[in-house]
Amino acid sequence: MKPRDARGFMGFKLLKRISNKTYGIIGFLIFFSAWEFFSKLQIISNVYLPPLENVLSSLWFILGQHDTYLHIADTLRNFGIGYGLALAMGVPFSYVMGLSKRLYSMFDPLISALFSAPLITLLPLFVIIFGIYDECKIAMIFIASIFPLIISLTAGLRAVPLDLIEMAKSFGANGFQLFYTIYLPASLPSFIAGLRVSFTRALIFTLVAEMYVSVVGIGHLISWSSQFVRMSEAFSYIFIVAFMAVCITYVLKYLETKMRGWGM
C-alpha cells in the first residue's frame, strides 16, 4: 500500500471510530461558529442576530430569575395536560377505529381533513369558546396532537398482514389474544412514530397559543421580547424551549428502546 493510500485508509478508519454523539457536537460547533461569523461581521445586523456571548449572558441572567421557572412550569403544565388528554383519548380510539372497517370508513376522511386543515385558523374560535385562559391553550394542544397520533397508529394496525391473523385464528386465538400478541406488538412502531409527530405539533402549538392568547409561559416571553426587539432575551427563551424539547425527545427515545424488543 502506498503511503498516500495508507494515510487515506487511516483517515477512513478514524472517521468510523467517531461516534454519533461526537458528530452531533460537531454539528453544534458548526452552527454556533456560523452564528458568530454572521454576527461579528455584521452580515446580519446585531439588532436581529446578537452576538452569542450576549445571548449567553442574557440566558444566565434569566435562569437566575424566579419568575422564569414559573413561566416554564406554566408551559409544561398546559403541554402535559393537552398532550396527556390526546394520548388518553387518541390511543383507545385508534385501536377501535383501526380494528373496525366500518368505523375506519366513517372517520378516516374526517380525521384526515382535520389533520390537513391549518389549525392556527381555529385559534379565534377557541378564544371565543374558552376565552384567553388555560383551557384555550389546552384545547389547541389537544387538537394539534391527537390527529397525527390517530392516523399513524391506525395505519399501523391496518398494515398487519392478514395471513398472520388467519394463522393465529387457526391455532385457536381469541380476540384478546389476537390483540395482545399480534395487533399490539405490530402497532408499536407506528405508535412511536405518532408520538414523535404529535409531540412536535403539541410543542409548536403550545408556544403559538401562548404567543397569542396568554400573558404567561415561554411562548409569551418570546413574543414579548421580540416585540420590543430584545433579541438576546428572545433567543435565550428559544434556547430554553430547545433544551426542553431535547429532554422530552430523549425520554421518547428511551421509551422506544424499551418497546422495540416487544414489537414485531
Q: Determine the CATH superfamily of the largest domain.
A: MetI-like
In the predicted model, the low-confidence regions spanning at least 5 consecutive residues are none
Cα-based radius of gyration, to the nearest Å: 24 Å
* Mean pLDDT score: 82
Name of the CATH first level of the largest domain: Mainly Alpha
Which structural class matches the secondary elements?
mainly alpha
Query: Helical segment tally?
Result: 11
Order of helices and strands: HHHHHHHHHHH
* Overall strand count: 0
Predict the CATH topology of the largest domain.
MetI-like fold
Q: In which range does the helix fraction lie?
A: over 70%
Oligomer: single chain
Dominant shape: globular
Structure description:
The protein is 83% helix and 0% strand. The chain is mainly α and 264 residues long. It folds into two domains: 3-44; 55-260, MetI-like (MetI-like fold), CATH 1.10.3720. Helix 3 crosses helix 11, helix 4 (66-99) runs antiparallel to helix 9 and helix 5 (101-116) crosses helix 7 (134-158).
Keywords, please?
about 260 residues, mainly alpha, MetI-like fold, 2 domains, 11 helices, about 85% helix, globular
Brief characterization of the structure:
The chain has 264 residues and is an all-alpha fold. Helix content is 83%, strand content 0%. The protein has 2 domains: 3-44; 55-260, MetI-like (MetI-like fold, Orthogonal Bundle), CATH 1.10.3720.
